[in-house]
């Protein structure tokens, strides 16, 4: 009897992924409050740093609210999914989606985060979206917090740095679980939770300048602890309120290689991988790993916990692990290597064996197989790739077509490695390509960094009709899904 696995099983969940703050728009409609994402400006490429969200300060926010700034905030407008969701979901259905990953904007449900009652119009909007997905038999995969902290919680409590926010998040989670218990089975708690240590404002609405005399690491890891506890409580609530529900964590996986086989480089890569996997270690194993003791001690980080925190983490681990994967990272202890640009990554150096995207991200399909195998061996839990894609400049031809063969090549190579990982024995639930429709970039708030199979007519300055059209990759991905990944 042969037990060989040859490909994806018949229940494999193919689809795409978005975030509310990058697609919805309607930032001030139907009772929605401001979120942290609504305060991230667009700055032309010639003037911006690596990630403008890192530059948001208390003073900047107050100046914007007082009308002292005239910046443009593209995430406030998105690509108008709020009014066009039926059109967009119909296109997703035409692609053959089995699952669509989206997020709920917390400030659309509780405009200030700590409101006594939820906003009914916000609740109704997402109910309408979920019912529209169900009409096409598309499973929603819903992220509770995807870089969308209510701005009022940042101004009043300094976001997730305050333990008070656990209670507000718990009430939010309970509210949406109860409202959508018959519509949503798959949930994620925090998007790319490790980004808190790179950009506390992005990851949790935390303003470093509000906490004097403490390092950014101390602030970030304390805020992450509060998110860990909140995630565990949300997992408990989901299981109680929604029978058969599945709750996952979500990590920005930064697979790290040593540039050389020098033992110092190997140790550095191992340490960096541990610091990245720390977040899934806590979510999946329910406890802080021992290797963090030294890191905390050497960086003078002290995590303040309540007596019950460790018990809560242990009792309510996640059901599955989800992650984003765009590239791998190479590091060295030597200074004689060429630097490369990476998303939220400092100190990464060029891997001579890899090509790079238009934004300098090094393309490494086999790194995805390495990542899947590592996760599988480390945790033994089901895995879900919930972000993977190529941000690139697209050219609209005179006849209106967009020949994005580069996007098809990127995805083809990664899906091939997914298949190899499944043959290796990895339990892979599904794959949601990032940005099935063009959207506002998280890190740069630009539109020209396009990921979609569906083109949206809008430029970096917000000009355009917002009309949707199909790129060449649309038909290609439709066939990938129809053949369950057999025809690439």
Automatic annotation (TrEMBL):
> What are the positions of the active site?
387 (nucleophile)
Q: Example GO biological process term?
A: carbohydrate catabolic process
Question: Which GO cellular component terms, listed alphabetically, does the Swiss-Prot or TrEMBL entry include?
Answer: cytosol
Which segment of the chain is annotated as a signal peptide? none
Q: Does the keyword Transcription apply?
A: no
Task: Cite a single GO MF annotation.
Answer: beta-glucosidase activity
The keyword Cytoplasm is annotated on this UniProt entry: no
Under the heading SUPFAM superfamilies, the entry gives: (Trans)glycosidases
Q: In its UniProt entry, what is this protein called?
A: Glycoside hydrolase
List the source organism.
Answer: Shouchella lehensis G1
């Amino acid at each position: 009897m042969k037990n060989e696995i040859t490909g994806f099983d018949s229940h494999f969940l193919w689809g795409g992924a978005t975030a509310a703050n990058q697609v919805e728009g309607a930032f001030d409609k139907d009772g929605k409050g401001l979120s942290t994402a609504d305060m991230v400006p667009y700055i032309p490429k010639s003037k911006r740093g690596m990630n403008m969200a890192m530059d948001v300060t208390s003073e900047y926010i107050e100046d914007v609210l007082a009308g002292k700034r005239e910046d443009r905030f593209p995430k406030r407008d998105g690509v108008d999914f709020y009014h066009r969701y039926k059109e967009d979901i119909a296109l997703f259905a035409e692609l053959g989606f089995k699952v669509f990953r989206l997020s709920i904007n917390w400030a659309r449900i509780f405009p200030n985060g700590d409101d006594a009652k939820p906003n009914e119009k916000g609740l109704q909007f997402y109910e309408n979206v979920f019912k529209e997905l169900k009409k096409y038999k598309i499973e929603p995969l819903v992220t509770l917090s995807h870089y969308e902290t209510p701005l009022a919680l940042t101004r009043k409590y300094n976001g997730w740095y305050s333990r008070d926010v656990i209670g507000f998040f718990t009430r939010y989670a309970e509210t949406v679980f109860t409202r959508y218990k018959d519509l949503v089975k798959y949930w994620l708690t925090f998007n790319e939770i490790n980004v808190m240590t790179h950009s506390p404002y992005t990851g949790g609405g935390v303003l470093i300048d509000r906490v004097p005399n403490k390092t950014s690491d101390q602030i970030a890891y304390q805020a992450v602890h509060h998110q860990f506890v909140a995630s565990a409580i949300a997992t408990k609530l989901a299981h109680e309120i929604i029978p058969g529900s599945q709750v996952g964590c979500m990590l920005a996986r930064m697979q790290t290689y040593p540039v050389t086989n020098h033992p110092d480089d190997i140790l550095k890569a191992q340490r960096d991988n541990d610091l990245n996997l720390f977040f899934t270690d806590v979510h999946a194993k329910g406890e802080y790993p021992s290797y963090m003791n030294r890191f905390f001690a050497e960086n003078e980080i002290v995590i303040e916990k309540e007596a019950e925190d460790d018990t809560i983490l242990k009792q309510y681990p996640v059901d599955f692990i989800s992650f984003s994967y765009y590239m791998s990272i190479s590091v060295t202890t030597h200074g004689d290597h060429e630097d490369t640009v990476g998303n939220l990554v400092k100190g990464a150096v060029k891997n001579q064996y890899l090509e790079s995207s238009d934004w300098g991200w090094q393309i490494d399909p086999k790194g995805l197989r390495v990542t899947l195998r590592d996760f599988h061996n480390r945790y033994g839990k089901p895995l879900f790739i919930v972000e993977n894609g190529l941000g690139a400049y697209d050219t609209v031809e005179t006849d209106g077509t967009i020949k994005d063969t580069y996007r098809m090549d990127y995805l083809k190579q990664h899906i091939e490695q997914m298949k190899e990982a499944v043959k290796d024995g990895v339990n892979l639930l599904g794959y949601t390509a990032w940005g099935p429709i063009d959207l506002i970039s998280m890190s740069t708030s630009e539109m020209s960094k396009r990921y979609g199979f569906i083109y949206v007519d809008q430029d970096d300055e917000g000009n355009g009709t917002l009309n949707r059209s199909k790129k060449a990759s649309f038909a290609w991905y439709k066939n990938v899904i129809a053949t369950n990944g057999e025809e690439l």
